[in-house]
Amino acid sequence: MGSEGAAEPGTVRPGGRTARVRAAVLQAAGDCLAERGFAHLDLADVARRAEVGKTTVYRRWGSVTGLVADLLADMAEQSLPRTETGTLLGDLRANARLVQRTLADPRQGALFRAVIAAATCEPKTAEALHHFYDTRVEEWAPCVRQAVDRGEVPEGTDPHEVIRAVSAPLYYRLLTTGDRLDEDAADRAAEAAAAAARAGVYVRGDGVV
Protein backbone atom coordinates (compact mmCIF):
# COMPACT_ATOMS: atom_id res chain seq x y z
CA MET A 1 0.00 0.00 0.00
CA GLY A 2 1.18 3.53 -0.77
CA SER A 3 1.45 6.33 1.74
CA GLU A 4 -1.30 8.92 2.17
CA GLY A 5 0.60 11.33 -0.06
CA ALA A 6 1.09 8.88 -2.92
CA ALA A 7 -1.76 7.84 -5.19
CA GLU A 8 -2.04 4.27 -6.43
CA PRO A 9 -1.86 3.68 -10.20
CA GLY A 10 -5.14 4.54 -11.87
CA THR A 11 -6.31 6.92 -9.15
CA VAL A 12 -4.79 10.13 -10.53
CA ARG A 13 -7.20 12.28 -12.55
CA PRO A 14 -5.16 13.66 -15.44
CA GLY A 15 -6.08 16.96 -17.02
CA GLY A 16 -5.21 18.86 -20.19
CA ARG A 17 -3.80 16.87 -23.08
CA THR A 18 -3.45 13.69 -21.01
CA ALA A 19 -7.23 13.64 -20.51
CA ARG A 20 -7.60 12.42 -24.10
CA VAL A 21 -5.27 9.52 -23.39
CA ARG A 22 -7.26 8.53 -20.32
CA ALA A 23 -10.55 8.76 -22.25
CA ALA A 24 -9.21 6.60 -25.09
CA VAL A 25 -7.80 3.97 -22.73
CA LEU A 26 -10.96 3.78 -20.63
CA GLN A 27 -13.11 3.48 -23.75
CA ALA A 28 -10.90 0.66 -25.00
CA ALA A 29 -10.97 -1.05 -21.60
CA GLY A 30 -14.76 -0.89 -21.51
CA ASP A 31 -14.95 -2.35 -25.01
CA CYS A 32 -12.62 -5.19 -24.06
CA LEU A 33 -14.60 -5.98 -20.91
CA ALA A 34 -17.88 -6.01 -22.80
CA GLU A 35 -16.51 -8.20 -25.58
CA ARG A 36 -14.30 -10.66 -23.73
CA GLY A 37 -14.80 -10.33 -19.98
CA PHE A 38 -12.41 -9.56 -17.15
CA ALA A 39 -10.35 -12.75 -17.51
CA HIS A 40 -9.24 -11.71 -21.00
CA LEU A 41 -8.60 -8.05 -20.25
CA ASP A 42 -4.99 -7.31 -21.18
CA LEU A 43 -3.21 -3.98 -20.79
CA ALA A 44 -1.24 -4.45 -24.01
CA ASP A 45 -4.45 -5.11 -25.95
CA VAL A 46 -6.09 -2.07 -24.38
CA ALA A 47 -3.10 0.07 -25.35
CA ARG A 48 -3.26 -1.20 -28.93
CA ARG A 49 -6.97 -0.46 -29.22
CA ALA A 50 -6.53 3.00 -27.69
CA GLU A 51 -3.52 3.67 -29.93
CA VAL A 52 -1.46 4.50 -26.88
CA GLY A 53 2.00 3.25 -25.98
CA LYS A 54 2.10 0.21 -23.70
CA THR A 55 4.50 1.90 -21.32
CA THR A 56 2.03 4.75 -20.83
CA VAL A 57 -0.74 2.33 -19.86
CA TYR A 58 1.47 0.26 -17.56
CA ARG A 59 2.94 3.34 -15.91
CA ARG A 60 -0.39 5.10 -15.30
CA TRP A 61 -2.62 2.17 -14.34
CA GLY A 62 -0.15 -0.49 -13.27
CA SER A 63 -2.50 -3.47 -13.48
CA VAL A 64 -5.78 -4.68 -14.89
CA THR A 65 -7.50 -4.10 -11.55
CA GLY A 66 -6.13 -0.56 -11.40
CA LEU A 67 -7.51 0.11 -14.87
CA VAL A 68 -10.94 -1.32 -13.99
CA ALA A 69 -11.02 0.75 -10.80
CA ASP A 70 -10.41 3.91 -12.82
CA LEU A 71 -13.01 2.86 -15.39
CA LEU A 72 -15.63 2.50 -12.65
CA ALA A 73 -14.62 5.82 -11.12
CA ASP A 74 -15.04 7.48 -14.51
CA MET A 75 -18.41 5.82 -15.04
CA ALA A 76 -19.62 7.14 -11.68
CA GLU A 77 -18.42 10.63 -12.60
CA GLN A 78 -20.08 10.54 -16.02
CA SER A 79 -23.43 9.09 -14.91
CA LEU A 80 -26.48 11.22 -15.53
CA PRO A 81 -27.57 13.42 -12.62
CA ARG A 82 -30.62 12.74 -10.49
CA THR A 83 -34.04 13.56 -11.87
CA GLU A 84 -36.51 15.53 -9.71
CA THR A 85 -40.19 15.00 -10.55
CA GLY A 86 -41.83 16.22 -7.33
CA THR A 87 -43.04 12.81 -6.19
CA LEU A 88 -41.25 9.80 -4.77
CA LEU A 89 -42.73 7.40 -7.32
CA GLY A 90 -41.80 9.69 -10.19
CA ASP A 91 -38.23 10.01 -8.94
CA LEU A 92 -37.85 6.28 -8.34
CA ARG A 93 -39.30 5.51 -11.75
CA ALA A 94 -36.75 7.85 -13.34
CA ASN A 95 -34.00 6.08 -11.42
CA ALA A 96 -35.26 2.63 -12.41
CA ARG A 97 -35.52 3.56 -16.07
CA LEU A 98 -31.98 4.94 -16.05
CA VAL A 99 -30.69 1.66 -14.57
CA GLN A 100 -32.83 -0.30 -17.05
CA ARG A 101 -31.49 1.57 -20.07
CA THR A 102 -27.94 1.04 -18.89
CA LEU A 103 -28.28 -2.68 -18.25
CA ALA A 104 -30.32 -3.30 -21.41
CA ASP A 105 -27.64 -1.68 -23.55
CA PRO A 106 -25.61 -4.48 -25.18
CA ARG A 107 -22.24 -2.95 -24.35
CA GLN A 108 -23.04 -1.57 -20.91
CA GLY A 109 -24.92 -4.66 -19.80
CA ALA A 110 -22.06 -6.92 -20.80
CA LEU A 111 -19.58 -4.58 -19.12
CA PHE A 112 -21.45 -4.67 -15.81
CA ARG A 113 -21.76 -8.45 -15.92
CA ALA A 114 -18.01 -8.72 -16.44
CA VAL A 115 -17.17 -6.32 -13.60
CA ILE A 116 -19.62 -7.95 -11.19
CA ALA A 117 -18.16 -11.37 -11.98
CA ALA A 118 -14.62 -10.06 -11.41
CA ALA A 119 -15.63 -8.43 -8.14
CA THR A 120 -16.43 -11.84 -6.66
CA CYS A 121 -12.75 -12.78 -6.68
CA GLU A 122 -10.78 -9.52 -7.04
CA PRO A 123 -10.84 -7.40 -3.85
CA LYS A 124 -9.71 -4.19 -5.58
CA THR A 125 -12.37 -4.59 -8.25
CA ALA A 126 -14.95 -5.26 -5.54
CA GLU A 127 -13.87 -2.11 -3.70
CA ALA A 128 -14.15 -0.07 -6.88
CA LEU A 129 -17.57 -1.52 -7.67
CA HIS A 130 -18.80 -0.75 -4.14
CA HIS A 131 -17.57 2.82 -4.52
CA PHE A 132 -19.37 3.14 -7.86
CA TYR A 133 -22.68 2.07 -6.35
CA ASP A 134 -22.17 4.12 -3.18
CA THR A 135 -21.71 7.17 -5.40
CA ARG A 136 -24.84 6.48 -7.42
CA VAL A 137 -27.00 5.66 -4.40
CA GLU A 138 -25.85 8.84 -2.67
CA GLU A 139 -26.70 10.82 -5.79
CA TRP A 140 -30.32 9.62 -5.66
CA ALA A 141 -30.83 9.45 -1.86
CA PRO A 142 -32.09 13.08 -1.61
CA CYS A 143 -35.29 12.14 -3.45
CA VAL A 144 -36.25 9.96 -0.48
CA ARG A 145 -35.33 12.67 2.01
CA GLN A 146 -37.54 15.06 0.04
CA ALA A 147 -40.36 12.51 0.17
CA VAL A 148 -39.99 12.39 3.96
CA ASP A 149 -40.24 16.19 4.08
CA ARG A 150 -43.40 16.07 1.92
CA GLY A 151 -44.94 13.44 4.18
CA GLU A 152 -45.03 10.77 1.48
CA VAL A 153 -43.04 8.27 3.54
CA PRO A 154 -42.51 7.92 7.30
CA GLU A 155 -39.88 9.82 9.24
CA GLY A 156 -36.77 7.69 9.66
CA THR A 157 -37.01 6.03 6.24
CA ASP A 158 -33.52 4.95 5.13
CA PRO A 159 -32.92 6.67 1.76
CA HIS A 160 -30.09 4.37 0.74
CA GLU A 161 -32.12 1.20 1.28
CA VAL A 162 -34.98 2.58 -0.81
CA ILE A 163 -32.69 3.42 -3.73
CA ARG A 164 -31.00 0.02 -3.55
CA ALA A 165 -34.42 -1.65 -3.56
CA VAL A 166 -35.24 0.02 -6.88
CA SER A 167 -32.30 -1.39 -8.83
CA ALA A 168 -32.00 -4.76 -7.06
CA PRO A 169 -34.70 -6.55 -9.13
CA LEU A 170 -33.18 -5.23 -12.35
CA TYR A 171 -29.71 -6.52 -11.52
CA TYR A 172 -31.20 -9.83 -10.40
CA ARG A 173 -32.92 -10.21 -13.76
CA LEU A 174 -29.73 -9.23 -15.61
CA LEU A 175 -27.63 -11.83 -13.79
CA THR A 176 -30.03 -14.74 -13.34
CA THR A 177 -32.43 -14.80 -16.29
CA GLY A 178 -32.50 -14.20 -20.00
CA ASP A 179 -35.61 -12.09 -19.70
CA ARG A 180 -35.70 -8.78 -21.51
CA LEU A 181 -35.11 -5.72 -19.34
CA ASP A 182 -37.77 -3.25 -20.44
CA GLU A 183 -39.46 -0.17 -19.04
CA ASP A 184 -42.28 -2.26 -17.59
CA ALA A 185 -39.76 -4.12 -15.42
CA ALA A 186 -38.23 -0.81 -14.37
CA ASP A 187 -41.62 0.68 -13.49
CA ARG A 188 -42.61 -2.38 -11.44
CA ALA A 189 -39.36 -2.15 -9.48
CA ALA A 190 -39.98 1.53 -8.76
CA GLU A 191 -43.60 0.95 -7.77
CA ALA A 192 -42.66 -1.91 -5.42
CA ALA A 193 -39.96 0.16 -3.72
CA ALA A 194 -42.25 3.18 -3.37
CA ALA A 195 -45.07 1.08 -1.92
CA ALA A 196 -42.72 -0.57 0.57
CA ALA A 197 -41.30 2.81 1.57
CA ARG A 198 -44.78 4.25 2.12
CA ALA A 199 -45.63 1.21 4.27
CA GLY A 200 -42.63 1.88 6.51
CA VAL A 201 -40.58 -1.13 5.45
CA TYR A 202 -37.38 0.93 5.28
CA VAL A 203 -37.76 2.85 8.53
CA ARG A 204 -34.60 2.55 10.59
CA GLY A 205 -34.94 1.63 14.23
CA ASP A 206 -32.80 4.57 15.33
CA GLY A 207 -34.69 7.04 13.19
CA VAL A 208 -31.47 8.29 11.54
CA VAL A 209 -31.66 9.13 7.84
Automatic annotation (TrEMBL):
Residues 19-79 form the HTH tetR-type domain. GO terms for molecular function: DNA-binding transcription factor activity; transcription cis-regulatory region binding. The keyword DNA-binding applies. InterPro entries: Homeodomain-like_sf, HTH-type_TetR-like_transc_reg, HTH_TetR, Tet_transcr_reg_TetR-rel_C_sf, TetR_C. Pfam families: TetR_C_11, TetR_N. Residues 42-61 bind DNA. It comes from the Bacteria. Keywords: DNA-binding, Transcription, Transcription regulation. This is TetR family transcriptional regulator. It comes from Streptomyces calvus. The lineage of its organism: Bacteria, Bacillati, Actinomycetota, Actinomycetes, Kitasatosporales.
